[in-house]
């Protein structure tokens, strides 16, 4: 294998901002930036249904990120074209580190990820909300 996941994670973590779970919780609770920050949940829908999510988070399955960011994609989501801070998270912080690097490489200026992911968020006492099962 030319480059494994450990090397990819090491490269990503060297280039992106990691926000510790405690700081992310304080930021979420304090609303210190007037709602400019968007928490982006990259987990699979089954993970959301099973574990819940950070209240108010925007769900973007990891497999759709590049397509939702790119304004030329037929799947583009206008949220990613707004002047916002995007704080990515996943289950443990691996997918979100790679996603933050990808988003940064694609031109999003203000991106970071939650260190430890949703697990770290919960362990640090962060609020969660249930996600109802999808229909169909």
From TrEMBL:
<dbReference type="InterPro" id="IPR001763">
    <property type="entry name" value="Rhodanese-like_dom"/>
</dbReference>
<feature type="domain" description="Rhodanese">
    <location>
        <begin position="33"/>
        <end position="130"/>
    </location>
</feature>
<dbReference type="InterPro" id="IPR036873">
    <property type="entry name" value="Rhodanese-like_dom_sf"/>
</dbReference>
<dbReference type="GO" id="GO:0004792">
    <property type="term" value="F:thiosulfate-cyanide sulfurtransferase activity"/>
</dbReference>
<protein>
    <submittedName>
        <fullName>Rhodanese-like domain-containing protein</fullName>
    </submittedName>
</protein>
<dbReference type="Pfam" id="PF00581">
    <property type="entry name" value="Rhodanese"/>
</dbReference>
């Amino acid at each position: 294998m030319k480059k494994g996941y450990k090397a990819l994670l090491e490269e990503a973590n060297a280039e992106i901002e990691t926000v510790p779970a405690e700081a992310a919780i304080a930021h979420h609770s304090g609303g210190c930036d007037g709602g400019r920050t968007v928490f982006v949940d990259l987990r699979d829908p089954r993970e959301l249904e099973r574990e819940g999510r950070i209240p108010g988070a925007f769900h973007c399955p990891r497999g759709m990120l590049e397509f939702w960011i790119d304004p030329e994609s037929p799947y583009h989501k206008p949220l990613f074209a707004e002047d916002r801070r995007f704080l990515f998270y996943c289950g443990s912080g691996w997918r979100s580190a790679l996603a933050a690097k990808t988003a940064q490489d694609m031109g999003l200026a203000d991106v970071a990820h939650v260190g430890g992911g949703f697990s770290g968020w919960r362990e640090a006492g962060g609020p969660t909300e249930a996600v109802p099962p999808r229909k169909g």
